[in-house]
Amino acid sequence: VLVDPLPFDTQLEPTFDGRASAIAWSSFRQWKVLGLGDALEPHACRIEHILVTDGKTPGAASNRALPFFLKFDAAEIADRSDGEPMGWMLENRHTRTALARTVTAHRDIDLRAPASVASVEPGPGSARVTLGDGRVVEAAVVVAADGKSSRLREAAGIGAAGWDYGQCGVVATVRMAEPHNDVAHEYF
What we know:
three-stranded mixed β-sheet, 11 strands, alpha+beta, single chain
């Protein structure tokens, strides 16, 4: 059973979410095994190198000595004889679309959307999940993938620790004037 608070179709709209995610090669490999590779690969960009800097100019990409920077290269990782990159950059909308098509095509998955979780009662061997409309789902395993204010996490008695870094981030989509050569730049 998959419970989602949003109407499933709205999540597949191209304008739903403009974010992109870095996907580890192992996660992408799992998606390929599940049959999602053909749908995702045309939209994915390889990450062959990762350059991380503390944000001071000129940055890790300049090849000059800096006080704080890291450089990762897929070719230097010993168990990469298969030629796979370190990861992939992929717009979330493509990931959601491929996963949604797989979920809706799989007849054994009971999709309940829109629906919300009203309460969870853990028990020996199974948990009882009551949805907002009163329907009840019982399952041996319940996976909480419902965000930072997770009712499932709270019901299971799993605490959360957090703190403020005193910083803020800027997220942007940019069009490059020059090729990026499959390099992921991370500026902190």
